[in-house]
């Protein structure tokens, strides 16, 4: 069906600044290649644990089919509050300081749309999950990119101070995503505290995306809200920790008066999350069995990380060893195609292995590729065999 051409001229002009997700577009592009191994999307290969599925089923059997409170069931908000206090020593009131969102994605959208006005500036340490860039641009904000490639993908206090000094009061917010998508790098207690000390002297809102917090391997995760609760919106959820990506349940927590404003955008956008999915998330976050599920998955991810890291570094890739999440962000060695999109396409077409080009994640991602190791170890072994063969056969002498 054709659309009346004039209608396309009257849409939100900021949409012209963004395009479809480069990650999704590349994944679709390579999907048609026969026998392709795709390590492209952040999609856990585990099934949802049985006791969590049963909680969703019981919700349906009990005819839990009417609108829940817009901010989510109180049972889930209480489970989330207990989880955040128990795991990260941050305290939130379940009734006034927590919203259940449709995935962390909706939490990102609702938060940015609430706090950003046209021409506000938002600090984005890159490489970064590109949704932040797109939503900020659609909201009319101006991204302030801080390339962290030279500091092992860590936003340092000095880099942050320099950006604040340059852009001043125009900065409305800063995004922190740790453990990071795409790098897997995270922040130590000392590093979180140092950033909080800088931000405390400002009126900048911190959007702390901690969706991978439960997948921290070598040290306990430290929430930004531990040191800067009065300025921080914490995003979390069950998608990555419990392999529940399709259930679409995120958690947003912050100071009550800020959360009250975000709740307006949340309510106007989605009304409320799905009852069976919230029942499942309550089981995931509110029971000892749910905590154990994450530990079991994390042990498997750690094994996969170590295997892929050793394989890729032996092939000459430069990798900041990930401390969390389930990604390897690897610099393409000299002597190979340096355009990351060309490299990734060539690898996919010649050897049937799909990785995401690093440029998809903003400045500092050029010349890198991202690999998701949220796949069975047998799949990863075959993937590394294909990568090894490609590297042997395609070096430019």
TrEMBL record:
GO biological process, one term: amino acid metabolic process
Keyword Transferase on entry: yes
Domain Aminotransferase class I/classII large intervals: 35-387
Domain of life: Bacteria
GO molecular function terms attached to this record: pyridoxal phosphate binding; transaminase activity
Cofactor: pyridoxal 5'-phosphate
Record Gene3D superfamilies: Aspartate Aminotransferase, domain 1, Type I PLP-dependent aspartate aminotransferase-like (Major domain)
EC number(s) stated in the UniProt entry for this protein: 2.6.1.-
Coiled coil: none
Chaperone in keyword set: no
Main EC class the enzyme belongs to: transferase
Keywords: Aminotransferase, Pyridoxal phosphate, Transferase
PANTHER family: AMINOTRANSFERASE (PTHR46383:SF4), ASPARTATE AMINOTRANSFERASE (PTHR46383)
Family: Belongs to the class-I pyridoxal-phosphate-dependent aminotransferase family.
The protein's name in its UniProt record: Aminotransferase
Originating organism: Leuconostoc pseudomesenteroides
């Amino acid at each position: 069906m054709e659309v009346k051409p004039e209608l396309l001229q009257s849409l939100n002009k900021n949409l012209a600044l963004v395009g479809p997700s480069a990650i999704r577009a590349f994944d679709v592009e390579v999907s048609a290649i026969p026998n392709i191994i795709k390590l492209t999307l952040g999609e856990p290969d585990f099934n949802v644990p049985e006791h969590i599925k049963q909680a969703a089923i019981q919700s349906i059997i009990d005819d839990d089919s009417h609108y829940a409170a817009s901010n989510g069931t109180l049972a889930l908000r209480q489970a989330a509050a207990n989880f955040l206090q128990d795991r990260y020593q941050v305290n939130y009131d379940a009734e006034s300081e927590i919203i259940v969102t449709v995935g962390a994605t909706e939490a990102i959208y609702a938060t940015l749309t609430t706090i950003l006005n046209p021409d506000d500036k938002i600090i984005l340490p890159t490489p970064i999950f590109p949704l932040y860039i797109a939503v900020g641009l659609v909201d009319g904000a101006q991204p302030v990119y801080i390339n962290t490639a030279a500091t092992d993908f860590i936003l340092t206090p000095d880099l942050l101070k320099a950006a604040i000094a340059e852009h001043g009061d125009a900065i409305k917010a800063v995004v922190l995503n740790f453990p990071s998508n795409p790098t897997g790098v995270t922040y130590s207690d000392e590093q979180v505290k140092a950033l909080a000390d800088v931000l405390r002297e400002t009126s900048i809102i911190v959007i702390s995306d901690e969706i991978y917090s439960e997948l921290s391997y070598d040290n306990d995760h430290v929430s930004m809200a531990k040191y800067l609760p009065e300025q921080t919106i914490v995003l979390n959820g069950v998608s990555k920790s419990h392999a529940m990506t399709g259930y679409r349940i995120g958690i947003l927590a912050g100071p009550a008066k800020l959360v009250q404003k975000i709740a307006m955008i949340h309510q106007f956008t989605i009304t409320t999350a799905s009852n069976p999915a919230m029942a499942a998330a309550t089981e995931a976050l509110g029971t000892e069995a749910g905590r154990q599920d994450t530990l079991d998955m994390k042990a498997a991810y750690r094994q996969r990380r170590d295997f892929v890291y050793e394989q890729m570094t032996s092939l000459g890739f430069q990798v900041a060893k990930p401390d969390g999440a389930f990604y390897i962000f690897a610099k393409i060695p000299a002597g190979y195609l340096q355009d990351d999109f060309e490299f990734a396409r060539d690898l996919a077409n010649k050897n049937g292995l799909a990785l995401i080009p690093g440029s998809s994640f903003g400045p500092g991602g050029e010349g890198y590729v991202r690999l998701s190791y949220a796949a069975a170890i047998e799949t990863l072994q075959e993937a590394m065999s294909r990568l090894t063969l490609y590297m042997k056969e395609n070096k430019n002498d």
